[in-house]
Design brief:
Structural class of chain B: alpha+beta
Protein name (chain B): YceI family protein
Number of domains of chain B: 1
InterPro entries (chain A): Protein_unknown_function_OB
Number of strands of chain A: 6
CATH class of the largest domain in chain A: Mainly Beta
Strand order of the largest sheet of chain B: 1-2-3-4-5-6-7-8
Radius of gyration of chain B: 20 Å
InterPro entries (chain B): Lipid/polyisoprenoid-bd_YceI, TTHA0802/YceI-like_sf
Pfam family, one (chain A): tRNA_anti-like
CATH architecture of chain B: Beta Barrel
CATH class of chain B: Mainly Beta
Strand content of chain B: over 45%
Shape of chain B: elongated
Oligomer: heterodimer
CATH topology of the largest domain in chain A: OB fold (Dihydrolipoamide Acetyltransferase, E2P)
Low-confidence stretches of chain B: none
Protein name (chain A): tRNA_anti-like
CATH superfamily of chain B: Lipid/polyisoprenoid-binding, YceI-like
CATH architecture of the largest domain in chain A: Beta Barrel
Mean pLDDT of chain A: 90
Helix content of chain B: 10-25%
Largest sheet of chain A: 5 strands, mixed, barrel
Order of helices and strands of chain B: HEEEHEEEEE
Number of domains of chain A: 2
Helix content of chain A: 25-40%
Largest sheet of chain B: 8 strands, antiparallel, barrel
Number of helices of chain A: 3
Distance between the termini of chain B: 36 Å
Order of helices and strands of chain A: HEHHEEEEE
């Protein structure tokens, strides 16, 4: 009888521990790691631009908060930002290679929306996947 | 005579340049907001990808922050912010359109001066008039504007559920910093 009570106690303790572990995992789950996610879309930068220029809401519905891979030519490098095809802003968490100017690249990042002030599509948490 | 004409053309060009080449901008402005209640977990988000433009002749100032660009330390907080509070799928951006009152670029120095910035802040589909004291300085080709103001979630029709309302401050303090350069 004593033994049975002991087992029940162990089972309860294990359940509590598991519950705590999972709820902790839920509350403190890791933030997204865009660089290790598979891209939902692989598009030329020019296509992303024309879709946003054509219908912003429709483009937002398709791309917003999604991981995408864009290809195009790097037209500007400033500190932690690469601009692709003059109109796609790619923000990097780690400073990108400044030598990629005028090169054709594929960049993976998360679409955060369209910036009307400068007429640009903005991506953050970018990484360069391939460079010519 | 020919020389004089040349000088006049140069002067006209210079005036033209002064009048129209006075737009300053940034695409990597910083906005932080904090709604932490003492002794509870930090509630704070930061955007490092805010765009802003300043017309130095008129003082007109505009800023645009993409809501998805706000990052949090805790993933679940970011999720709640986007899905429950600002509804960033429906309202993907926050904008500010206003004016730096009495801005005179020629008087700006590296030492920051205080100016009043007033304008309309729009987010979550609601607009509110904001006024705050901003510090403005200029060194070389860069105008730096920093400041802070407070807003209430209720001003923008954002409801904080009673379950978490104790952990989220009633007043949210927002700080901003823009380093605007002449393109």
């Amino acid at each position: 009888m004593k033994k049975k009570g002991f087992i029940v106690l162990i089972v309860i303790l294990v359940m509590i521990a598991a519950g705590a572990f999972f709820s902790y995992g839920y509350l403190y789950k890791d933030v997204r790691n865009i660089s290790s996610e598979d891209a939902s879309f692989k598009v030329p930068a020019s296509k992303l631009i024309s879709e946003y220029a054509g219908n912003q809401q429709k483009a937002d519905a398709a791309y917003l908060n999604k991981t995408v891979e864009i290809t195009g030519k790097v037209t500007q490098v400033t500190d932690s930002v690469l601009t692709v095809d003059s109109q796609v802003f790619c923000g990097f968490d780690v400073k990108p290679d400044a030598g990629s100017i005028n090169k054709n690249v594929t960049i993976k990042g998360r679409v955060i929306g369209f910036d009307e002030l400068f007429g640009e599509v903005k991506l953050d948490q970018c990484t360069i996947t391939t460079k010519e | 005579m020919k020389n004089l004409r040349f000088i006049i053309v140069v002067i006209i060009l210079m005036i033209y340049n002064c009048m129209f080449a006075q737009k300053y901008g940034t695409k990597t402005g910083n906005i932080k907001f904090e709604a932490t209640v003492p002794s509870f977990e930090e509630v704070a988000g930061e955007s490092k990808t805010t765009s802003a433009a300043l017309d130095a002749t008129t003082g007109d100032f505009a800023a645009l922050a993409l809501m998805k660009g706000f990052r949090f330390k805790v993933a679940l907080m970011e999720e709640h912010f986007n899905e429950n509070y600002v509804e960033s799928d429906k309202y993907p951006k926050a904008t500010f359109k206003g004016k730096v009152e009495g801005l005179d670029v020629s008087k700006l120095t590296a030492d920051a001066k205080t100016y009043t910035v007033t304008g309309d802040l729009t987010l979550h589909g609601k607009t509110k008039k904001i006024s705050d004291a901003a510090k403005v300085s200029k060194s070389g080709n860069t105008i730096t504007i920093t400041g802070a103001f407070e807003v209430k979630p209720g001003d923008f029709a954002i409801e904080i559920p009673s379950v978490v309302s104790k952990k989220v401050a009633d007043k949210i303090s927002v700080t901003y910093s823009f380093q605007l350069v002449k393109p």
